[in-house]
Amino acid sequence: MQKTIAVIKGDGIGPEIVEQALQVLQAVAQKFGHTFVYNQVLLGGAAIDATGEAMPQATLDACLAADAVLLGAVGGPKWENLPGDKRPEKGLLALRKGLGLYANLRPARLFSALAAASPLRADIAAAGIDFLVVRELIGGVYFGEHSTAMVNGEKKATDVMSYAEDEVERIVRTAFTIAMGRRKKVTSVDKANVLDTSRLWREVAEKIAAEYPEVTYENMLVDNAAMQIVKNPAQFDVMVTENMFGDILSDEASMITGSIGMIPSASLGEGTRGLYEPIHGSAPDIAGQDKANPVGTILSAAMLLRHSFNMQAEAAAIEAAVDKALAQNLRTGDMMSEGCVLVGCAKMGSTIAALI
Ligand code: IPM
Ligand code: MG
After folding, report:
1. Contact 228, 220 (CB under 8 A)
2. DSSP assignments along 214-282, one per residue
């Protein structure tokens, strides 16, 4: 098969981790006889520096023309003092919105080789961590009106959070569809004791739940969910929640698996085109030092093959190669534990590519 992938290296550690993911994709192309055409485009800080805009129209056009998009990370201290609507992160949000990617899938799975790196007590980690956060990605407070104004002589800032029924319905449906192929449990997370958006969310979620009698459904308040993730993560299968709660809970969920550097994500809309990125940020403090963990990006490439190209064996080959590299006790700094071998980003990537 021939497929086009729009590639966004981004800022900070972005270029080095994407480089490794591309090596792994090349190994897959060779082994399985595919041709992947890479179209490199700019987003975030790199795009601001080159064009003055965080998401140039040319980038959106190239992504729309591609079969899938692979992204490293955007943002960094260099652009931190720009106004909110000019920051690198705004480019990422505009791209997600422009591609209509409302469903963000963030798996939290404990790799058995990494059990020692999990900050959870051994007996809690041993009970198993394997759940999926399904985060609504193009609505809620991220996309509401933002403003700062002078009111009675002091600054007052406002961020509007709103959800329409259809926005909730499609993401909750995504969660139930995925749950049918997993352990058939959905936990919908909200703050229905305080927020109107959450009360609507819960009402819609309960309606959709009734269409899936085989799936066990529960609601959970977001503060309780934050606690349950560290207390008893084995209880979760699919967790569905709105944009900002999902941002926060998915970082928490990733950390208990040993390192946020391991976790990939897929952002999907109506078609097969998706955006694939690790859930971590651009880590400017370690950029360019060959210290970054490329696994989150490499596993994002695996999700890309699975969800956008329907290449199941190819995706599984990447995941197996990652497992083998971990079984050889290779670790980047973020997931290092005693008795393991500390390697850099490039060595981790080339080892995984060679194991394909
Ligand atoms: C993420 C990131 C982004 C988000 C930032 C960079 C805008 O934290 O993908 O989780 O909040 O969505
Ligand atoms: Mg985040």
Report:
1. yes
2. TSEEEEEEHHHHHHHHHH-GGG-SEEEE-HHHHHHHHHHHHHTTT-GGG---EEE-SSS-EEE--SS--
Give me the helix-helix angle, 243-255 and 222-231, nearest 10°.
10
SS (H, E, C) 82-151: CCHHHCHHHHHHHHHHHCCCCEEEEEEECCHHHHHHCCCCHHHHHCCCEEEEEEECCCHHHHCCEEEEEE
For a pocket test of ligand 1, which of 80, 89, 138 has the largest count of ligand atoms closer than 8 A to its C-beta? 89
159: which DSSP letter?
E
Pair 305, 315: CB distance under 8 Å? yes
| CA gap 96, 139 in Å, rounded | 10
Residue 310 has a CB neighbour count (10 Å cut-off) of 11
d(CA 277, CA 301): 8
Joined tokens for residue 109? 């799975």
Based on the number of CB atoms within 10 Å of its own CB, is 185 exposed (0-12), middle (13-18) or buried (19 or more)? middle
Q: Is the CB of 92 under 6 A from ligand 1?
A: yes
pLDDT tens-digit map of 12-56: 999 999 999 999 999 999 999 999 999 999 999 999 999 999 999
CA of 137 to the centre of ligand 2 (A): 11
Q: Is 279 in the pocket of ligand 1 (CB under 6 A)?
A: yes
Distance of alpha carbon 112 from the chain centroid: 21
Report yes or no on whether pTM surpasses 0.85.
yes
Quick: pLDDT tens for 97-123: 999 999 999 999 998 888 888 999 999
Residue 79 makes CB contacts below 8 A (sequence gap 6+) with 44, 45, 48, 87, 88
Phi and psi, residue 186, nearest 5°: -125, 130
Query: Is 136 close to ligand 1, i.e. is its CB under 6 Å away?
Result: no
Other CB atoms closer than 10 Å to residue 343's CB: what's the count? Answer: 22
- Ligand 1 pocket member 137 (CB < 6 A): no
CA angle, residues 244, 246, 250, in degrees to nearest 5: 130
Count Cα neighbours of 62 within 13 Å in the Cβ-side half-sphere. 19
Q: Is 142 labeled as catalytic in the residue annotation?
A: yes
